[in-house]
Amino acid sequence: xxxxxxxxxxxxxxxxxxxxxxxxxxxxxxxxxxxxxxxxxxxxxxxxxxxxxxxxxxxxxxxxxxxxxxxxxxxxxxxxxxxxxxxxxxxxxxxxxxxxxxxxxxxxxxxxxxxxxxxxxxxxxxxxxxxxxxxxxxxxxxxxxxxxxxxxxxxxxxxxxxxxxxxxxxxxxxxxxxxxxxxxxxxxxxxxxxxxxxxxxxxxxxxxxxxxxxxxxxxxxxxxxxxxxxxxxxxxxxxxxxxxxxxxxxxxxxxxxxxxxxxxxxxxxxxxxxxxxxxxxxxxxxxxxxxxxxxxxxxxxxxxxxxxxxxxxxxxxxxxxxxxxxxxxxxxxxxxxxxxxxxxxxxxxxxxx
Length: 353
Ligand SMILES: CC(C)(COP(=O)(O)OP(=O)(O)OC[C@H]1O[C@@H](n2cnc3c(N)ncnc32)[C@H](O)[C@@H]1OP(=O)(O)O)[C@@H](O)C(=O)NCCC(=O)NCCS
Known about the structure:
Elements: E1 2-5, H1 11-18, H2 25-34, E2 43-48, E3 51-65, E4 68-80, H3 89-103, E5 108-112, H4 116-120, E6 125-126, E7 129-134, E8 147-150, H5 153-167, H6 179-188, E9 200-206, E10 209-219, E11 222-230, H7 235-250, E12 257-258, E13 282-284, H8 290-298, E14 304-308, E15 311-315, H9 318-325, H10 329-341
Parallel strand pairs: 4-5, 8-12, 11-13
Antiparallel strand pairs: 1-2, 2-3, 3-4, 5-15, 6-15, 7-13, 7-14, 8-9, 9-10, 10-11
Helix pairs in contact: 1-2, 9-10
The structure holds coenzyme A.
């Protein structure tokens, strides 16, 4: 068995292999072809003669830790062809992934997993965190005069990226996005096997100036606000968007002025009535923003929490992380895990890989 990084000429073969998982080659192709940080060296493979039989991919990202953009290697697309399973192939690739993370100067690593014990063996630790559930967003009483428009990248990206920098950038663990990352993210955020990555991206404007935005997708039958942001003190602008989402999902009349083409809102009612959450329920993250949570409660839509048990972190280099944070290696590790686990930290679903 040959274990190594993929060659450029093997890109299609890797996608053919991953296409056996969920029968959705496109899901994986969206990352590989649109991620500006994709590199063949970060795509590990196992080859048996003519056949590519397993792969593990490292996603090149950076996250904010105590004000430092810290290199983070995300692990994903871990897959072994069925007839090669339980022979230690994925384990061997995971060990190689750890070596690669170290060699490529990553300092921390994140993965989303169901098989926690599998990844425990290689040093990742599960961290509890909370999703927030807004059970009845249409009942929100959002005040303020905002017009709701649909995001237009050519017109709005600079303003939205600036809101993202100022709002999201304040929180530990958030993913850093430069201009190229934004372009990729607009293509693959909300990417889900078998479901595509359609998003309903809306902005609340005051005198044509964006004050808040929300990016929404359907995630296994649930309406997921996979990212949002607002200008300082403008919680009402965001509440306006949440109320609109609740109203659109339940078929209620919109209480706010709409601008632009809102046909994308149709996704809010798709697949409702099935196994997913009832229409009008929004899932997102709010635990990091106590001011917003108080405003939601005061406006008639308090949040409930739902535990997320799929979030795992590993330190790749305590030494490098310590230098970055100005701490001895042990303290840096402890500090990083404190931040990964903190309610005040934030990692958007839009940045999942
Ligand atoms: C998860 C997955 C990648 C594991 O691949 P694999 O190559 O079979 O992995 P390994 O053989 O290294 O380890 C699998 C199991 O076999 C055991 N094992 C390892 N070597 C073994 C051997 N020589 N003989 C018997 N069992 C062995 C491991 O302990 C492990 O046990 P666990 O399943 O209880 O954790 C594979 O099952 C898969 O592709 N699943 C579908 C995709 C998926 O779920 N990916 C992970 C998303 S989080």
